[in-house]
């Protein structure tokens, strides 16, 4: 079992524990805001499970039906997470509406807040693990899960503050109003997760700083070639796909042109651990005098 799978399994376990604690906090107090926090934790468990399934699918090797691999499964998981976050926000808005119409005083608010704060601390530690290791392992599903948890941590902090103010001020209507504000924040979080993941499904190019590094690496390791043009890049899960046309002198032997391609490919793979590179060799009259010039 590799590290990515272990972290995904850990997310499910953490999600279940936090959900139990937040549900207990809501049961003790009857707070609509704490209920909203518990509802978001329900989504955490579901999305962690979806992330695990997506990661397992993404790690399958390429086959006849999927010659480019299954890497985009992680982006699909992240889109699903975004949808589920939005659904949770809409459910919270419904509860907030009913709470505003008929505000109710809370029972045992101190105990409920302490339990909720403890659950929030667990989430804070785990979201740091998910984002750090998700970026290092180039796993969009883990990063999306971590970003969702981070929004949950911020939400929990706001809920604790708002419920405390409702108790101190003696205005129970502040509780459902706060739940509504939490829902709006969750909606924004869900949209951001979906936007990033949809970009991956649409084969968006790698970030500009990485693209500059790729261009420099090609230029520095293409001795014997003339230029490289029509450079295209995209991400799919942990994989980076790179393809371009390499122009060489028309009299260059095939073996020599192949050696240049091997050298460029090796340099790019040193820069990007998980990269799939396709190079199309062309004779000199195909040069466009643009793109990547060889130093």
TrEMBL record:
The entry's keywords: Membrane, Transmembrane, Transmembrane helix, Transport
Residue ranges constituting the Cation efflux protein transmembrane domain according to the UniProt record: 11-202
Pfam families membership: Cation_efflux, ZT_dimer
Gene3D superfamilies given in the database record: Cation efflux protein transmembrane domain (1.20.1510.10), Cation efflux protein, cytoplasmic domain (3.30.70.1350)
Protein localization: Membrane
Record's bilayer topology term: Multi-pass membrane protein
Annotated ranges, domain Cation efflux protein cytoplasmic: 207-284
Signal sequence segment: none
TM region(s), chain numbering: 7-28, 34-55, 75-93, 113-131, 152-171, 177-202
Family membership noted in the UniProt record: Belongs to the cation diffusion facilitator (CDF) transporter (TC 2.A.4) family.
PANTHER family the UniProt entry points to: MITOCHONDRIAL METAL TRANSPORTER 1-RELATED
Name of the featured protein: Cadmium transporter
